[in-house]
Specification:
Length: 247
């Protein structure tokens, strides 16, 4: 017997006898979980106009501590900050000899901090300013050893500090000018001080730029290194632009 005539349309029920059963199973089935794709902020995404969203660069803001009580140590970084303390030697103790060296990394963490045995007899410990006492130097490191260690640490790195020429003088070392960032000599910094000061002290810069008071008594080379570092990092963009202009 020939199949009944149709108008050209095919009924899905005729093709799939189990169609009704399948529909019932589909209706009773639990809802499917929607697949979620984790958001990647660094992945470029297309918008309707065809433009691309630029990659988002993650930056980690680090608050540099400015207290000597924070003794956290860290690894060496491409940027370091250094500060030294001196004692008086020679005639009436007017000459400087190295007594302490402190170096922090760009997060303000201590990477080096040693007392140094002066090369000459100490006439004036200058404790009121240096914070150095006779007991600090009893088992201090040899100058020659410290000099070699500091030189190795500084090599190839940007060195930040205040009046670095004085620290390099007592260390009997030098450092490339292009890798030196001295808050004592920076033109950008001098322009920020009102009234202008040709060679501002670190204490003045800390007050004017960072809004903090330091060196109210004995100095601490760790604190001074951290303060110089904070000043540099706060002004890093302008400072580096100034350096490029005069290259």
């Amino acid at each position: 017997m020939p199949p009944p005539a149709t108008d050209g349309k095919v009924d899905a029920k005729d093709i799939a006898p189990n169609w009704k059963k399948l529909k019932e199973e589909e209706a009773n089935a639990p809802p499917k979980e929607k697949k979620t794709i984790p958001f990647n902020p660094n992945k470029k995404r297309k918008f309707n106009d065809g433009a691309h969203e630029p990659a988002i660069k993650k930056t980690r803001k680090v608050e540099i501590p400015v207290t000597g009580a924070d003794k956290e140590t860290g690894e060496l970084t491409p940027i370091i900050a250094i500060d030294c303390e001196y004692v008086g030697v020679g005639d009436e103790g007017k000459d400087d000899n190295l007594a302490r060296v402190s170096i922090v990394n760009e997060e303000g963490k201590i990477v080096y901090d040693k007392f140094v045995r002066p090369k000459m007899k100490v006439v004036d410990y200058r404790t009121a300013v240096s914070g150095i006492r006779p007991a600090n130097l009893l088992n201090a490191s040899r100058f020659e050893d410290v000099q070699k260690e500091v030189h190795k640490i500084m090599e190839g790195r940007i060195v930040v500090g205040h009046a670095l020429h004085n620290d390099m003088r007592v260390l009997c070392l030098s450092h490339p000018r292009k890798l030196t960032r001295d808050t004592y000599k920076c033109k950008t910094i001098r322009q920020m001080i009102n009234p202008p000061v040709a060679h501002p002290s670190l204490k003045l810069l800390a007050s004017k730029i960072l809004g903090i008071d330091i060196q109210q008594g004995e100095h601490d080379s760790i604190i001074d290194a951290r303060v110089a570092l904070r000043i540099y990092l706060n002004l890093k963009k302008k400072w580096e632009e100034e350096i490029k202009r005069y290259k």
